[in-house]
Every structure is written in structure tokens, then in C-alpha cells.
Amino acid sequence: MRVLALSTLRVARLILRLQLQGGVESALLNAHSDSDTLLAVSNLFGKETKALNNKKSKIQNPNEQSKSFIWALVVLVVVVVAVVGFIVMQGKEKKDNAFADHPVNDVAFSAAVEDNSITLKSDKAGKDAKVVDIYEDYSCPHCGDLAKETDEKTRELLDQGKVIVKIHDLNFLDDKDGTDNEPAKDGNSTLAGASALAIAKDGDAKTYWAYRDLLYTEQANIYNKWKAEDFANAAKQLGASDDAVAKIKDYAYQDELVQHAEANAQELEDKLGKVSSPQVFIDGKHVEGNPAEWVNQI
User: Fold this and answer.
1) pTM score, two decimals?
2) Fold for domain 110-296?
3) Which long-range contacts (CB under 8 A, 24 or more apart) does 253-256 make?
4) Signal peptide position in this chain (predicted)?
């Protein structure tokens, strides 16, 4: 689209160079960029309109008037197409690079999918490492608050091998689908969780950790607005593999995420008698009160 837009502007410049005379032609010949061309064209139509108004009382050759009018229309159409193409191209480039500057930090732990959770563990973790179970829903604002408040410390504890963290995805905040009173499979929690699951199953802990952070920091902008392609595009910008990106686009792990979420919800029912998020357990013991306090209990 960028090539088309620029080519169209060059065509407009050539047409105007061949057809125009005087000061306007000079302005176009001195235009060294597409933005200069657009400005020159804008000036052209302003001057042409003024000139036509001044010449209303003069006798002109009808053929010349017709010829000038046709060329003016041709140039106008070319410029409109170029401007529209330029705007579309700019919008696409902005979307494709919206998260290019989001931090992606190195990590000293691995990511694996097991027991309905995403397990994060360093090679340094020994038998004395605490097992921390975090139950979260990507549509939950409080989960976002917990992540923002504790993720930096969590990464340090993981890198040092002091904890093994298991992320348990939930989707109970998705709208019900109206058939069996179960969360809709195309809800925000499910789609976000499935996209993160794709990266974790790829074994890419570094990108997974950065992507999870993005899902929470951009939560308000993502909620019920993003589709699979949007999640895939964001994952790609953060460095996810082509295979992981393709699986996100294809909804490859949507059903698996739903299975995880159902199992995790049942675990909370069994442990707490309710399903809510976020919930944190350290070595099986529930963290009461403020869940963010868990990092101070290690």
C-alpha cells in the first residue's frame, strides 16, 4: 500500500509538470517530497479557482476550457487516491508497531504447560523453593493491579530460584454464551489466555513474561476489543515465534484454555468455596487479605 500511495503521488507530480505553467509548475518542480507535492496541489486548486473566477468575463476557447477541466479532474482523482492510500498505510504501520517499544527483559527461568497451569521455574530452584500458585483472569482489573505491583519482584524471585510460580488461567469473567450458562469461548479472558498459552507452549519464557505484562498494562484498551489477529500482532511485536503467532491467529489453543479455566475454577471451589480472582497460594496455603503481600512472605 505504501508503494501504491507513493507511486500515485509521483504520477500526480508528472501529470502536473506536463500540464501546468508558471509559478505553480515551478512549485511542483521544486517539490522534493510527497508532502511537498500535496501542498503544491492544494495551492494549485486554490489558484486555479481564483483564476477561473477572474476570467469569467473573457472569451475563451471552449476546447481549451474542456481540456483543462478534464486534466484537473484527473489530477484531483489521483491526489485523492494517493491521500487515502497514505492515510491507510500510516494507520497500518502505526498498528503494526504499536508495542515495538514494550520492554522485553531477559529472564533466567523456563516456561512449561502442565497440570492446567503455566509453570515458571529456574534451574536454580531447589527442594526448598516455594511453590506459588496464582489464579488470575485477564479481564480482572484486580489481577492487573496485582501483576503491576508484584511482577518485578516475582521475576527476581524466579531468577534466583527462590520460587516456582504456577499461573492458573481463569475465564469466569467472560460473558455467558446463552446456551449452557458457560463462559463464551470468544470472550476476552479466553482469547487473551489462549494467546499467552500459545507462547508458553512454545517454551518462550522471555516473550511470555513480557506478553503477560502487556496484556495487563493494556487491559483497558484490550478488553472486548481485540480479536485473535490483534493478540497475534502484539505477540509478534514482542518477539513470539512465527509458529506461536500462527496458532494465536488460528485459535489453536482456545479449547485447551477453556479446559484449564474450568479445572482451575473447580480447584478454587474446592479450596475456597468460591471462584474469584486474584488468588494466591504459597505451598498450598492461601494468602489472606492483600494478595500482593505474598512477595513479602518468601
Assistant:
1) 0.70
2) Glutaredoxin (3.40.30)
3) 253/194, 253/197, 253/198, 253/201, 254/185, 254/186, 254/190, 254/191, 254/194, 255/185, 256/194, 256/197
4) none
